[in-house]
Description:
Radius of gyration: 35 Å
Distance between the termini: 38 Å
Number of domains: 2
CATH class of the largest domain: Alpha Beta
Order of helices and strands: HHHHHEHEHEEEEHHEEH
Strand content: 5-15%
Amino acid sequence: MQGVAGNDETALLVFLVLWVFGIYFIFAISRMGMATCWWRRLPCRTRLCLRLYLSIIAVILLCLVLFAYTLIFDPDVTDINLSDVQQLTPKPHELCVIVPFRDREPELAEFAPHIQQFLDNQNVKHVILAMNQTDQYRFNRASLINVGWLESDRIGCDYLVMHDVDLLPANPQIDYSFPQLGFVRHISSPEYHPKYNYTKFIGGILMLTMADYKAIDGMSNKYWGWGLEDDEFYLRIRDGNLNLTRVSNLTTDRTNSFRHIHGKERKRDYAVVTKTQREMKRKRDRVREF
Length: 290
């Protein structure tokens, strides 16, 4: 293991040189009383001052020798690895933008460059994950987000935002920074969402840490088609004692905080919202998906 003292051979050589020079210097001082006539011709006061100065230099040399010894042979110093020191630097946060969609390629083509530029402007390190459902079954937004969590975990993101593909942030004040552990940030809050404003609405754009998403078991996989998976997730947030915060104090309003690009010709799957599925909202699955 390479210590912070640098090259061990060089340090050892410096130590030996200082040690030899120090021993010689101390020996020379001790012999001054027996020195030749030039020393004896000096006044007593001068000889005393010279002895004092040389003694001080000898003490300094001895301290340098002891310091070099400590750097070379003290394991508490030399065993410090530079890679261990570098690991003390906090890893920058990384956001995974999870975009569940199906048959929305035109919206995705507009969304992806927009959100990338928006996050770059905020210096948010991010990855965009477009979760495309390609089977013949009803759309299952929650399952796509759960799969997105698994992929985000593999990539190494430490927080995620579940993001509707047709909702583009337009106000630079909308914050996509790390929300802190224990906090859920509803970015498209009812105050600013262009369509929905009921109290328990948490759809559209919702952000939380990877750890918090796992702690509340993610989202229920039982909701096929459009609707109710967000309402059920709201209950999980509440039961998990997470703090739900909503974006506020923007200089814009519901008409211009976000741009909604949902095409009128693309109708959502409303038919699945049945009495049976409303009952499922109360009988939530608690199977740990992660």
